[in-house]
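Complex 554.
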Amino acid sequence: MNEWTGIRPPQAVHRSPFSNMIQSDLLVLGSGIAGLTFALKIAQERPDLKITVLTKTNETESNTRYAQGGVAAVWDFKTDSYQKHIQDTLIAGDGLCDEKIVEIVVKEGPDRVQEIIDWGARFDKKKDTNYDLAKEGGHSENRILHYKDLTGWEMQRTLSEQADLTPNITVLEHYFAIDIITQHHLGHTVTRVTPGIECYGAYALNKETSEIETFLARMTVLATGGAGQVYRNTTNPVIATGDGMAMVYRAKGRIQNMEFVQFHPTALYNPAGDNPAFLVSEAVRGFGGILKTPQGEEFMKKYDERGSLASRDIVARAIDREMKIQGAEYMCLDCRHLDKEGFVAHFPTIYEKCLSIGIDPMKDMIPVTPACHYMCGGIMTDEMGRTSINRLYAAGECTCTGLHGANRLASNSLLEAMVFAHRIYLEVKEKIDATHLPTASIPDWNAQGTTDPKELILITQSTKELKDVMSYYVGIVRSNERLKRATDRLYILYKETEDLYHKTTISPQLCELRNLITMAYLITRSATMRKESRGLHFTTDYPDELGFIDLTIL
Ligand code: FAD
Ligand code: SIN
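Predicted structure with succinic acid bound:
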């Protein structure tokens, strides 16, 4: 149900009378910006195609809806240029961006932003009717289009409303995709080097009936978002458990750059352990907010001449370091000198949230800490959104396109999701007529096992342990010793969880735990393999590439 309009047209699901099988032309996993942008574009171009979108909770619950700062795009060519946006992205990415991909995203970005505006998205304007372009860390110009501090909410609203009005899109809520279907499910041996692995759709758990249904499709698009829930303190909603990346890894597809986990420097200090942690947008620093110690001293200039607006990896590490030096639980964001009217107009949600916990941003400094925010790594895709598995495409935060390299530039991810959703649409439009449903019969999911409700505590406890391991040993500052500890502990959690998975009935909680363990393993293994510090990956054993301050004492 779309919470803004209440629109939910009848959802026509064509089930086979003989099994739990549903056939579509295109299957999309995920209803955030990446999934819905693709679904809308192809549905509008080809009204004859049947597109099924599965989403594991409500249609509108996604990382997308929580995006605050906005979407970066070159808009004012009098002051800005593609070259400047490209350069800022490359600098943030610390030598690991794919320059061709950066150029594609930056140059195609403005057209994609215009498209969502044409679908009805509102972005704030100045009095002169030009867009009010904001600035965030690492950007050399004002180029962030935003809707107050609710940009993601507005974009999700627009896309969900459009999708609900498009007759050949069926959005099925509360369907939890478990695994993509490949030759493996037909009994063939599939290894990571098997050529020509193919995807025929996905198995998904209908959370209302607890039945596992088979969704067959000519082509599948994964848009399942990030995995912030692998850490204890995260800005990501509880749906962000890395399901799509884990599915591709299990299906022997290629995943890359998992060591580059972005911690946002300024989540609201969260002593109660709220999940998710509330974000204080980087745009607040773009608006003039300054990072200070609780005693009121500025510290960012020690680390980078850009001060509070240095790129995110640098700011998060600096805050982490200052907290450790002082034994403090938080640093502060000082907004007391800013114009109240402007602050409230730009950041109404942040202002209200602060007031609700007794902090008046105009009188008090806002206590902040870093929190896990974004996965720069993910499913490896090429310039058309193709994965290493045939008939399987991916877009959005679950991917590693080459745009972000070792560190994502703020507000580049909504842009990336739209650009690659569009490129997958171009590719699918070309190929769909020559791509047919598989002729081999696909078996139903073999559901075995029983659940002992008493054992649900094992899942909850293991999830908590997993988050602790990742937060203590694979956080902002890493070392060989910490990574070794994490690896040993993760192995135990892995063995216990696989055992549970094979003897109990599948539940979303168990699948999510299994996927989070896969994420944790991939992050830890990739971090162990990188024998240097670069971008978001900092290790005390190989600090060489750091280049701004030696953190080895930590
Ligand atoms: P999502 O929007 O997360 O959507 C994923 C979808 O997949 C959801 O519908 C989910 O239900 C579904 N799904 C997941 N697993 C399954 C499964 N197993 N079965 C079925 N469905 C599944 N980026 C910016 O560019 N600018 C910003 O200002 C910004 N601010 C942010 C603020 C916050 C607090 C957060 C958390 C992120 C922010 N980001 C920002 C990042 C950005 O919001 C995300 O990277 C982007 O929205 C991801 O879009 P997506 O479509 O890939 O995934
Ligand atoms: C923010 O508003 O600070 C988040 C921006 C982003 O993650 O891109």
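Confidence is low (pLDDT under 50) at residues 4-10, 546-554.
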